[in-house]
Recover the amino acids of this structure.
């Protein structure tokens, strides 16, 4: 995989390409207004609305954020807290867990998380959890034993998939770094004023470098010296093995955006229609409450007699492209896919198994729920960042 980062029209574009130079993920962030996602603030509880079981918490710059009281948190309060429960007027440390999307305000949590390449330290969690994607029993046992003495009453650890086959020394070093950062914020944060920014998360392109397995990312290319310096600083501190993958592109005759056809890929990623090699197509319609994807046979069966075997081949191709488009466009929430109807239950079950296999490859949690009585496939994708069409529209 190759990560390409460049500036265009006051936006920072980040595109992750696969080995066939097809874009897998794309984001456009305003260069002057970085995302708040992952930031930690001293929040001020402005209001508590009991009938929706929620609190509205003010953060930096008067930004009002939503917080669900159904989420059981072990809060870190500032001075003069009334009790262990949130009350109006309280100062509390919160982290942005979801950006503002359409008409919805940003969402914050009291479960502060500090993410490294191999571990996630979570305030208020108990013990250690190993990633479900680590299937190797020996590795699972090694990691459990390594962190078996993590009995801190204030936080717990999540061992990420990237920890697979990583040395004990490296994993423990990251645990110590995250714990030191956590202690520093806990100690100083409770004495800061309302709205103070305590921790600023990394830009999306740095997150990608951190989150992708080391053996998958082959190159990181940018033509911006400031961005290259940010990559260099990060890898020097935390991922020295990836420093050699960084490249500063310089060519006055051909821009980086033109070299990788970013304008073309952006246009396709924002298009309502997606054509498949078979001649079939997808129609992608994001709405206020959900995203609907319709699979059309189009030219794929034009003038031909078609049965379930033919329909399955088209649905198989469509399923792969649907899951790619969800990741590329960062579509989230509830998603309905109207595949071509197949009478055979065997083919329908095969299609559902394929979707679950594809969903497991997404970095964002995807849940393939079910196929309804009307043969609509329902799935959900966790809302974290804004979808691409909203980023560009802004």
């Amino acid at each position: 995989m190759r990560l390409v980062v460049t500036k265009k029209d006051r936006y920072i574009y980040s595109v992750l390409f696969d080995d066939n130079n097809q874009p897998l993920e794309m984001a456009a962030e305003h260069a002057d207004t970085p995302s708040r996602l992952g930031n930690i603030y001293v929040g001020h509880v402005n209001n508590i609305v009991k009938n929706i079981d929620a609190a509205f918490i003010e953060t930096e710059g008067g930004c009002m954020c939503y917080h669900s009281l159904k989420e059981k948190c072990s809060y870190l309060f500032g001075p003069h807290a009334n009790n262990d429960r949130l009350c109006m007027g309280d100062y509390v440390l919160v982290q942005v867990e979801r950006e503002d999307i359409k008409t919805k305000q940003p969402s914050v949590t009291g479960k502060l998380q500090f993410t490294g390449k191999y571990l996630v330290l979570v305030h208020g969690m108990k013990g250690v959890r190993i990633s479900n994607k680590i299937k190797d029993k020996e590795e699972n046992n090694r990691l459990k034993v390594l962190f078996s003495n993590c009995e801190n009453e204030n936080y717990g650890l999540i061992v990420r998939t990237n920890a697979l086959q990583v040395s004990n020394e490296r994993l423990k070093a990251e645990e110590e770094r995250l714990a030191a950062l956590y202690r520093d914020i806990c100690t100083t944060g409770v004495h800061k004023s309302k709205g103070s920014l305590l921790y600023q998360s990394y830009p999306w392109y740095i997150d990608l470098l951190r989150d992708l397995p080391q053996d998958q990312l082959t190159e990181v290319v940018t033509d911006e010296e400031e961005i290259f310096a940010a990559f260099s600083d990060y890898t020097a501190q935390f991922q020295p093995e990836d420093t050699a993958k960084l490249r500063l592109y310089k060519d006055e005759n051909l821009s980086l955006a033109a070299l990788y056809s970013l304008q073309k890929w952006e246009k396709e990623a924002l298009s309502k229609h997606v054509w498949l090699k078979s001649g079939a197509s997808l129609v992608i319609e994001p709405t206020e409450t959900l995203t609907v994807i319709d699979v059309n046979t189009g030219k794929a069966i034009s003038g031909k007699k078609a049965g379930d075997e033919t329909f399955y081949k088209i649905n198989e191709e469509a399923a792969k492209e649907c899951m790619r488009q969800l990741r590329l466009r960062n579509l989230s929430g509830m998603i309905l896919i109207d595949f071509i109807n197949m009478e055979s239950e065997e083919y329908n079950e095969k299609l559902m198994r394929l979707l679950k296999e594809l969903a497991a490859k997404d970095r964002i949690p995807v849940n393939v729920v079910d196929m309804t009585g009307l043969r609509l496939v329902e799935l959900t994708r966790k809302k974290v960042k804004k979808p691409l069409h909203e980023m560009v529209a802004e």
Summary: Residues 168-189 form the longest helix (22 residues). The CA atoms of residues 214 and 242 lie 8 Å apart. The chain has a mean pLDDT of 86.
